[in-house]
Amino acid sequence: MGSRVLRVSESEIAERVSEIAKTISLDYRGRELIVVGVLKGAFVFLADLVRKLTIPVVLDFIQVASYGASMTSSGTISLKLPISMDVKGKDVLLVEDIVDTGGTIRFLLDHILSLGAASVAVCAMIDKPERRKVEVPVRYVCLRVPEGFLVGYGLDHAERYRELPGIYELITDASGENHPE
Ligand code: 5GP
Ligand code: MG
To answer: Which atom of ligand 1 is nearest to the CA of 98?
Structure first.
């Protein structure tokens, strides 16, 4: 049988979220920042992050289709939900759940830049640098996790586990099947 193992606790996450919120608040002081959350995985992180910022921001969301219900990257990315705001000439902070191979964030960076944003920076809840295939600039990293398929704190497997307050690794059994309970 498979299982799930706690990788990052609620309190560890909270501590790191406060730290990067402080850095972001300093970096963007006096500027007008548009925070764009990447649905759905970043929704919990985004909610915690913006409440720790000490600068005013405006919020928007974007969604791409990529991973689906699979545990490996599909390699093809398409826009599922476009942003609703005009980002022309604005500073944008893209808030993503995980930067893995880098394909998704590359796609999103190029997309936001093509809309005429003055600058686009990436804030990732989790960076998996060992798995990078596409080079992407990730300015703010909350946590670094080398390997393993993670769920919880917004992250899903087939839409489950997003509500867990900590970050867990899903351990698959020898058959490759996943039986988290
Ligand atoms: P990339 O395009 O960088 O390879 O993949 C990034 C996307 O893959 C993330 O936005 C996330 O949705 C998904 N992903 C990568 N690793 C994990 C993981 O460990 N757990 C979950 N739930 N999703 C992951
Ligand atoms: Mg994602």
So the answer is: 9
Query: Domain 13-146 classified CATH 3.40.50.2020?
Result: yes
Percentage with pLDDT > 90 across the chain: 85
Average of per-residue pLDDT across 112-135:
96
CA dist list (Å): 117 to 82, 120, 130: 14, 7, 29
The pocket around ligand 1, CB under 6 angstroms, is made up of: 41, 66-67, 73, 96-104, 149-151, 155-157
> What's the Cα-to-Cα distance from 110 to each of 116, 121, 137, 161, rounded to whole Å?
10, 11, 12, 30
Q: Which of 100, 110, 127, 173 is catalytic?
A: 100
Distance (angstroms) between ligand 1 centre and the Cα of 100 equals 6
